[in-house]
What does this fold into?
Amino acid sequence: MITFSRRKSDILKKQDKSSIGEWDEKIRDLCKKINSKENYYTLSSCSGRIVLIKNLEQKQPDMFVLRKHDKISFNELKKALEDYKTKKENKEDLIFKQESVIIHVACKTIKDAENMLNKAQRAGMKHSGIISISQKRIVIEMIGSEQLAFPIFSNEKILVDDNFLKMAVKEANSRLERGWERIEDLEETI
It folds into this structure.
């Protein structure tokens, strides 16, 4: 039987399989801190992001029109929308999303999971919980509540005016910053 520490070692040696191909800089230190603890290791993480995404039933390689793990400007968003609109092959509806921080962590015991979840909730990650229990490991998901999503492009038209876009950018950037504060708070409590 493979031990928890052996699985941890094997997982942490693997190459990054994320869609961006590297660790998200704003969450790297928190993940390193979690991974330094004997009874935990990270499985995946994201510090939050802002995306324009095609409204598709299934994931596809070209589903992201815009994807940033940082704040965006009104001009970036407007340009991405205008560029998408001018390409005749682009017929899918688009969704604007600001997604919150999320971290999946393997825990050795239920008590370890409980301990980490308590810290996550104290740091403001209220939507956290156990998502898997097996003989191999217990997996928790720590997730922030800072998120925003709405349809933004349909029938070859941008659905909102520039004033709304400016307000959406401001709100999405503000929510991203709050998520980054949650990351720092959690890192301090660990």
